[in-house]
Write a structure and sequence with these properties.
The protein has 1 helix and 10 strands; from the N terminus they run βββαβββββββ. The chain has about 130 residues and is mostly beta strands. It has a domain of about 90 residues: Metal Binding Protein, Guanine Nucleotide Exchange Factor, Chain A (Beta Complex), CATH 2.170.150.70. The strands form 2 sheets. A 7-stranded mixed beta sheet has the order 6-7-8-9-4-3-10. Strands 1-2-5 form a 3-stranded antiparallel beta sheet, with no helix packed on it. β1 and β2 form a beta hairpin. Keywords: Lyase, Metal-binding, Zinc.
Length: about 130
């Protein structure tokens, strides 16, 4: 079982199930919402229990997905595609070590010009 929350604690969650190897997303939307690239893991939506949702808000940045965030502190917590039964969860939101390691970079064609990707992980343009 993994636990996590936003910065202020008004949104808290548990994950009881497998977490996918995390990826770093460099798309423009993730960079703008997170302040840099966004590292996330993924799990089946039934594995996620939101145990405190006082300030949980959802933003539709596109027609295909929504982004979950805390309306109090602004933490970007979740990303969910409309047609999938999985949900992505911010690696930074977990309270305790997950034992996971970054596995790849995605949307590197959109990455910011102020940094380089210097590890040897796989990179997908989109």
């Amino acid at each position: 079982m993994h636990k996590g929350s936003c910065l202020c604690g008004q949104v808290a969650f548990t994950v009881d199930g497998a977490l996918a190897p995390p990826s770093a997303c460099h798309c423009g939307q993730c960079r703008k919402q997170s302040g840099h690239h966004w590292a996330s893991t993924e799990t089946h939506q039934d594995n996620l229990s939101v145990v405190a949702s006082h300030t949980l808000g959802w933003f539709r940045a596109s027609d295909t997905a929504k982004r979950g965030f805390c309306r109090q502190c602004g933490s970007f917590l979740f990303w969910q595609h409309n047609d999938e039964d999985t949900i992505s969860i911010s690696m930074a939101a977990f309270d305790t070590p997950t034992g996971l390691a970054l596995s790849r970079h995605i949307f590197v064609a959109d990455k910011g010009d102020y940094y380089d990707i210097k590890d040897e992980l796989p990179q997908r343009a989109q």
